[in-house]
Write a structure and sequence with these properties.
By secondary structure, the protein is mainly alpha-helical. Helix content is about 65%, strand content about 0%. The longest helix has 25 residues.
């Protein structure tokens, strides 16, 4: 089999999908399936309250922190848990860009429109935000933590040591939670090598969903933010700026709890494609495969299967994707007899396999 731009052929064939969780029913199930979007809504409400508190108390650090948080909330609300149509568009666009880099010519067809679309700078930025929403949100929240800590350090002496310490601790917990969500790699447990001992089990639990630790630290931060609000009221009982700050604590707690349920890789239950969307993806891929010379089709099918196994929204192994594509190829052949004559390719694109061989050893990098 011709080498594709992946680390190894074994990795290509044996790529496995993330383990799926059983969906919960009712309101809880609905929130879990849209956990990142729900977190975004909670953060928007919390940060609106935080900005109000900062403006009422004329505290620039607090309202700036709320402004950064609004950005994070907007990312979660817009780019978290995209609908099936958007998932299909994103995966097809990345697949098309990947195939073009390999020299595969994509036929012009309404079904393959997403694959042939070039896309501008805004499209690339949005694709990045759809792919890494929790990471972008955590980047913003690290800035909020820095703002809290800086505000605490700059407080006058009359503010009191406890008020300064509580706000500084709140900022430190935000920074720690954001960094854990950014730096810890998500890794599913290995059933053949289960963790041993309390520490290993705890670390395995965190690695399975690093945002669990993020949400926990963010909620611990709310204890200190709430104490800071109460101390603010004790020091200045005539000001009502503490009320929206306490409201922010409640909304943050909800948002943090939702974030703790979220997969960093965005491919868990509720985020993966439904069967109907996978069928549409398979049809698009089949049309591209059938447009190539017959002697290349089987090879390309396996390469496409390996690539799609790296897409979190697809959430299938390369082997299962290959079976799905083979079935879809037969259906498309029967429905489109004109595809029995593959399209003519020109120039260096006529032999994409040679181009792939020239880049042997490079890893698959899905484009944005």
């Amino acid at each position: 089999m011709t080498a594709l731009t992946v680390d190894t052929e074994k990795e290509l064939k044996n790529a496995t999908a993330p383990q799926q969780e059983e969906p919960a029913a009712g309101v809880v199930g609905g929130l879990k399936s849209k956990s990142l979007k729900a977190a975004g809504v909670g953060f928007l409400l919390a940060d609106a309250a935080l900005i109000t508190s900062g403006l009422m108390s004329k505290d620039k650090g607090i309202w700036f922190a709320g402004l950064c948080g609004l950005s994070a909330g907007a990312v979660g609300t817009r780019y978290g848990n995209p609908k099936a149509e958007k998932q299909l568009e994103l995966v097809e666009r990345r697949l098309g860009q990947y195939l073009k880099r390999q020299g595969v010519e994509i036929p012009q067809n309404p079904t393959t429109e997403n694959m042939t679309k070039e896309g501008g700078l805004l499209d690339h930025i949005e694709s990045f935000l759809y792919k890494y929403p929790s990471q972008v949100m955590n980047a913003f929240y690290s800035m909020i933590g820095i703002s809290f800590a800086g505000t605490a350090i700059g407080m006058p002496k009359e503010a009191g040591m406890w008020q300064k310490a509580s706000l500084f601790t709140s900022g430190a917990l935000l920074i720690a939670g954001a960094l854990s969500g950014l730096l810890i790699h998500e890794k599913k447990p290995d059933p053949s090598n289960p963790p041993q001992g309390t520490l290993q089990k705890a670390w395995s639990w965190i690695q399975e969903k690093p945002l669990r630790l993020t949400g926990t630290l963010f909620n611990a931060n709310q204890v200190f933010l709430g104490l800071n609000a109460l101390e603010q009221h004790r020091k200045n009982p005539d000001s009502y700026a503490y009320i929206p700050k306490l409201a922010a604590v409640a909304f943050f707690t909800f948002g943090n709890t939702m974030m703790a349920m979220t997969s960093k890789e965005h491919g868990g239950k509720g985020n993966s494609m439904d069967d109907a969307t996978k069928e549409k993806l398979a049809e698009s891929a089949a049309l591209v495969i059938l447009a190539q010379p017959k002697q290349m089709q089987d090879n390309l099918l396996e390469h496409v299967s390996g690539y799609l196994a790296t897409e979190a929204y697809v959430s299938m192994s390369a082997k299962d994707i290959s079976s799905m594509l083979k079935k879809k190829l037969e259906e498309v052949r029967a429905a489109h007899p004109e595809l029995q004559q593959p399209m003519q390719q020109s120039g260096q694109k006529s032999d994409w396999q040679a181009k792939v061989n020239d880049s042997k050893g490079a890893a698959v990098q899905p484009s944005l």
